[in-house]
Predict the structure of Glyoxylate reductase.
Amino acid sequence: PIKKPLVVVTRTLPDVVETRMRELFDTRLNDGDRPMSQAELVEAVKTADVLVPTVTDRIDAAVLSQAGPNLRLIANFGNGVDNIDVNAANNRGITVTNTPGVLTEDTADMTMALILAVPRRIAEGIKILENNEWHGWSPTWMLGRRIWGKRLGIVGMGRIGQAVARRAKAFGMSIHYHNRRRVPAKIEDTLEATYWESLDQMLARMDVISVHCPHTPATYHLLSARRLKLMKPEAYLVNTARGEVIDEAALTRMVEAGELAGAGLDVFEHEPAVNPKLLKSERVLLLPHMGSATIEGRIDMGEKVIINIRTFMDGHRPPDRVLPSML
Ligand code: 8YV
């Protein structure tokens, strides 16, 4: 019989995905759902034909320098590949794939939930009831801001950015975006979206900013202290992309000082650590990186990983190969 590839999976995946992988591959699953240590990762890359990491595994140049001759594919369980040094991998002849498309709608839903929940103070309202602090209705109490008729500025108009735009448009927001490239006119027309070549100018004019670009060297602290200060003090900031895109310390200072109305954050610069000052603020709604966390989405991601591995093993170009031009 043909030898099955040795596939090392770093984290626990949904049962159906693990079962299918065991049928198809010589699958080695991590025992216990916790991130692999650096030593375990090194051990994995030394022996595996295929590595399936997640966002919590840092596959940097140092780890890759230990890779054994069999390692040909890193099939990331996730869309963002900022956990992997893709250039270092490619230089060693290792292909990298991700799982785009299948988590677009779920992430956009979570983003829309934050766009609604932060200006309407939903988290604060829940806390008031839980703390038995509701003393009755009042016409001027717990007032939020309406999002209908307001301007949403999307930073990064890829699949997820566009899915957020569709939702926000249905909620009566006007759509604005900044992106490296302008999206095709047909998409702009459908979304009635306005393109801003200057991120600075867009930031200064929006009521809500939502971040949807990947974390790359070019987008690290894209929303720097200087840029955050361009936002209107009554504006809100939402991030379901990557914490590193925003200068979190600067954002925290601004939220504390009341220089921004509020923020909805699903991702952080030093996960799983969250700035304690952010946690204390009433102006923010914080979630523990749940943007794509649906049962269906995780199964879809697993299927994508399996398709990428099988296609690669059959000697073809895997559908979700990450190219350096995408970084
Ligand atoms: C996952 C994500 O939590 O895909 C991404 O980029 O941030 C999330 O969907 C993570 O990637 C799993 O590896």
